[in-house]
Structure of Stress induced hydrophobic peptide:
Amino acid sequence: MSLLTIILNLLLPPVAVFMQHGVGTTLLISILLTLLGWLPGVIHAFLVNS
């Protein structure tokens, strides 16, 4: 995992997921979790991008 990915995982989780996986269900889940709360979005982004 690169430094850029780690920073994006923390600041903008959906953008980090989009950069790794593109548009799909993973991105939609990331957006929904980030809207529900920042921390669930960050956790999901780290799990998906690891």
About this structure: The two ends are 7 Å apart (CA to CA).
